[in-house]
Structure to design on (434 residues):
């Protein structure tokens, strides 16, 4: 992937009573978003003001300052932390003599760059077109002057030059294609969930979800997964991996797209399918960067989970990056279990694996079975269910065996044995209660 480095000046409005820490987190996030899109932030121009200026977003004097910064750094782009109206973009581009983007366009651009699956690409294109549609009047034709680089990926210039009707038709067509892709995906998901439970890794962007998934699969799974690049939004489409539990069961571990504060509504809609995976999960592992502003991020995650109707799922909160954290955050009150560690160093991960096994009822229990040897079909079923650890002859034609199975499946095994024959005796021991 070729990433162009674009020089950027940021324009930020500070509401008068915004705490210093919240402001800093906002600028850090915007800077991270720029980096994720392959841009470098040269200067940040902030202005404290109550209201947004109808014509220029910020005050006229501040815009002059931004213009000076653009000249000083030879910047190619000015990005405003907010949503700009089409008129504001027009006025600002005239005043600054430079391309202007808002936060939504920046995020759309990153999504366009990262989308890997067909579904992801369709979603991004729909969101981009929806964003463009109301902005195409008047200055629409001038869109063609936007050269390569950030803010121009996705629907190509030729598409931008078409009229609104053709864009609407295109959106309809994309929606149809997306519906097809989703149907197929639901079938696949239903097939998968019959057999194995699933866990969704969710959390704020850059928390370390993909790094954790990579470690988990290296320790307990098969297959590979990309990670380790310092980019926000590195994961746009859910990635699912099969992982073994410490018992003899397995489950599906899913990566998801990271949340951001104030994700533009257009994007929440467009990326619902990646979050739909969360709805199919038996357990949510909430990954939180322990070095960041923990409280606001917990809030963001639970708000988004609420929006998609996933708040009833059991949650395990994993405070990540403890290798770099200066203190240990308090346990998450929403979570069934809170654990601390580092996906990068591996500290604490085995406690995490064990806790997930327990919450999924995949921790091993021992099923003791005694019955007639001649019931071969039943003994074969027992052998298939798990690892047989002890076999012993009880008397003539009778045997006893111990089989280790995930707790989740123990009940079903017992029921099947009892239903098949009443000369079998079955008891379950071991397992850790939740
Ligand atoms: N110090 C430290 N850094 C970590 C740890 N885990 C992940 N990182 C780093 O944090 C950055 C983000 O990690 P990712 O795994 O890509 O984060 P993510 O949650 O998947 O991010 P999105 O896909 O954007 O939502 C990378 O640079 C990782 O190397 C950790 O335990 N400690
Ligand atoms: Mg990721």
């Amino acid at each position: 992937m070729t990433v162009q480095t674009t020089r950027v000046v940021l324009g930020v409005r500070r509401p008068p009573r915004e705490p210093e820490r919240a402001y800093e987190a906002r600028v850090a996030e915007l800077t991270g978003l720029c980096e994720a899109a392959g841009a470098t932030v040269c200067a940040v121009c902030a202005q404290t003001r109550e209201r947004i200026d109808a014509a220029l977003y910020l005050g006229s004097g501040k815009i002059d300052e931004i213009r000076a910064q653009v000249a000083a750094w030879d910047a190619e782009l000015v990005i405003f932390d907010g949503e700009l109206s089409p008129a504001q973009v027009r006025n600002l581009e005239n005043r600054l003599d430079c391309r202007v983007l808002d936060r939504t366009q920046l995020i759309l651009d990153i999504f366009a760059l990262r989308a890997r699956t067909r579904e992801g690409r369709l979603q991004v294109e729909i969101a981009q077109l929806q964003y463009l549609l109301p902005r195409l009047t008047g200055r629409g034709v001038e869109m063609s002057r936007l050269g390569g680089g950030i803010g121009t990926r996705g629907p190509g210039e030729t598409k931008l030059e078409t009229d609104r009707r053709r864009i609407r038709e295109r959106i309809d067509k994309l929606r149809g294609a997306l519906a097809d892709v989703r149907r197929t995906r639901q079938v696949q998901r239903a097939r998968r969930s019959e057999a194995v439970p699933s866990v969704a890794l969710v959390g704020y962007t850059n928390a370390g979800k993909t790094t954790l998934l990579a470690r988990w699969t290296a320790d307990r799974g098969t297959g590979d997964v990309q990670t380790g690049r310092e980019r926000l939004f590195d994961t746009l489409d859910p990635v699912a991996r099969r992982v073994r539990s410490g018992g003899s069961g397995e489950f599906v571990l899913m990566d998801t797209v990271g949340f951001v504060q104030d994700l533009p509504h257009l994007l929440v809609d467009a990326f619902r399918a990646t979050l739909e995976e969360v709805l199919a999960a038996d357990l949510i592992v909430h990954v939180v960067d322990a070095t960041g502003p923990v409280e606001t991020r917990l809030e963001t995650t639970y708000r988004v989970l609420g929006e998609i109707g996933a708040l009833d799922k059991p949650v395990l909160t994993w405070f990540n990056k403890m290798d770099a954290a200066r203190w240990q955050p308090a346990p998450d009150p929403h979570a069934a279990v809170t654990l601390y560690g580092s996906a990068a160093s591996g500290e604490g991960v085995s406690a995490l694996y064990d806790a997930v096994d327990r919450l999924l009822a995949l921790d091993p229990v021992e099923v003791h079975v005694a019955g007639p040897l001649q019931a071969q079909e039943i003994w074969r079923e027992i052998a298939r269910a798990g690892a047989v650890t002890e076999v012993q002859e009880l008397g003539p034609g009778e045997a006893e065996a111990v089989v280790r199975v995930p707790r989740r499946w123990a009940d079903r095994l017992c029921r099947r044995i009892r239903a098949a024959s009443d000369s079998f005796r079955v008891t379950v021991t071991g397992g850790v209660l939740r």
Summary: The domain at 364-429 is CATH 3.30.70.240 (Alpha-Beta Plaits).
